[in-house]
Amino acid sequence: MASIFVFPGQGAQAVGMGRDLYESNAAARAVFDEVDAALGEKLSDVIFNGPMEELTLTANVQPAIMATSIAMLRASGAKNPEFVAGHSLGEYTALCAAGALSVGDTAKLLRVRGNAMQNAVPVGQGLTAVILGLDIETVREICAKTDCDVANDNCTGQVVISGAREIVEQTMAMAKDAGAKRAMPLALSVPVHCRIQEPAAEQMRAALETVKMITPSVPLISNKTCAPMTDVDEIKDALVYQITHGVRWRESVIAMADMGITEQIEIGPGNVLTGLCSRITDKITAKKLEN
Fold it and tell me: Annotated catalytic sites, by residue?
């Protein structure tokens, strides 16, 4: 038997997340204070009080979700599992949880990542959408015809696509014609995990060389390879790779089960990953860490 801590990505945010921990737990409060100091501003005030429009800005929401997740972990006093993983930005949180990155450096990297992703594509020119009710192979076939990118393979019947707005809109229409139950845009300010984010990938490559990363205490199940990863250079390459390539979450969870992982504990705001796990495999018991 083995366990894994998993950390959510963008979309899990809510105004007020983590405020109760900040007020009641010294370990959690230290995390938010370290993030504020690293960024040189009171991001915690935006997290706790909003407004939602400011919190959901890509440059804010990425370090905000990380800070809340790590605060929850530190407050819980949970012992290290055998593995960690994260969905998209959650990989940075997972590396922080495994001691590979400091909280401050993780916040700085995610601020750079958010700004780089926002600046890579002019506002309104990109789009991210979810396709429900089609298998990944069918979505890939459609994307090959339209030159769209698969951004997230979340679970059977839930695939996210991303790219230039007109291409994504064309792909959505073709998905509906192919029998998709729903094809709808997501409320993200940037197109994610797609080739037009190449400028952001290059900025992240440079940013990752400015921080100290050490070997994580437990292996990271990578979004890139769906396999355990501990080598620092390989991890950095994978973090750059994920900017322009899709998150292979469904395959990662299947790989977790094949490796003998029987317990998944989601740490952070929301419970999206817990729900996805139950839809992917019955070999893993998925739980949400409660305060």
Answer: 88, 193
CATH fold for domain 2-121+195-288: Malonyl-Coenzyme A Acyl Carrier Protein; domain 2 (3.40.366)
* Domain-wise residue ranges, the chain: 2-121+195-288, 126-185
Long-range contacts (CB closer than 8 Å, 24 or more residues apart) made by 105-109: 105/38, 105/211, 105/212, 105/213, 106/63, 106/66, 106/70, 107/34, 107/35, 107/38, 107/39, 107/43, 107/63, 107/66, 107/67, 108/38, 108/39, 108/207, 108/211, 109/204, 109/207, 109/208, 109/211
Q: Is the pTM of this model over 0.90?
A: yes
Which has the closest alpha carbon to 190: 27, 11, 1, 66?
11
pLDDT of residue 291: 55
Q: What stretches in the chain show pLDDT beneath 50?
A: none
Read off the tokens for 273: 């990953």
Span between the terminal Cα atoms of the chain, in Å: 24
Let me know if domain 126-185 sits in CATH 3.30.930.10: no
16 CB neighbour count, 10 Å cutoff: 12
Q: What is the pLDDT of residue 189?
A: 79
Please spell the DSSP secondary structure of 203-227, one letter per residue.
HHHHHHTTS-----SS-EE-TTTSS
Q: Cβ of 209: how many Cβ atoms within 10 Å?
A: 9
Cβ pair 98, 218 in contact under 8 A? yes
